[in-house]
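Q: Hi! First time doing this. I have a protein sequence and I read that you can turn it into a structure. Is that right? Here it is:
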Amino acid sequence: MPVEKEFRLKLVESRRGAAAKRERPRSTRARTETTTKAAVAALKKTPGAETIIDRVPKLAVVDAWSQVAYFSVCAKSGTATFLDLWDADHFDGFTDLQRCLNDCRAWFSGDGLTTWGSGQTKTGRINCYFRAPATGTYVCNARLQSYPSTSLAIVECLIDNSSFGPLPFTGTIDQPHPCSLAAGSHHFRIRQMQGAFFFLSLTVFRV
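A: Yes, that's right. Below is the predicted 3D structure, encoded as structure tokens:
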């Protein structure tokens, strides 16, 4: 079928070539999995943890945690059902589709890269849909990596529609998010606010 009549054919001239080739960025692959021990340690180091642990003492006990669901770009397990990625960025030679699958991670760009056509948007969204097998306390551990590793990135994490607030980070982090959930299906969401970052994984633990 022909295109709509509103489109008119044009002969476009470009008398200026592309800028000299610039070296594309490189990044170091990060491990996507998070151990229970690492997640507990990260929770204890988070400001405000003492108050939460006073309310739920088992949060400080590694043996009390059991993995319920796991999400990464190339794998899901447990009660993990759907992983939705919105406005992820693919930059050939750096984070093209095949490399993202090989590295099991997804990139969300921030500022820069306008030479290559970047819109510099910060609209990345991640939705991890999982099932809580019973009513109780859960911890959703987000493993993220800022890019470059020395730059600050900020995201907002939510369980269903309840926000944990802005999460600023530099480098590779494990950030546990404790929550009280009813039995059934839930969404853990990550919203890009500032900077560029990789989504490495989300691990859901029951405590």
